[in-house]
Here is the input.
Amino acid sequence: MVTAQLHERAPAVQELDQLTDERETFRGFRWWTVSDVETSMQRFFPGRLPRLLRKYLEGERIDEPFEFFS
Here is the structure.
């Protein structure tokens, strides 16, 4: 598992390397704290991310099935 912890300013996100379908569906970006994800009403992928994120960051292996949105 590879994780990054930022203690200062968040790095810039480059949109130039996105694939065509990513550019067509991309809605924006921001950096989230774990607490922000856990308490947000936003839709995440995978959908259970708010319940899984802290466990993943603590080293638990997560085997989450792929989700299709319609």
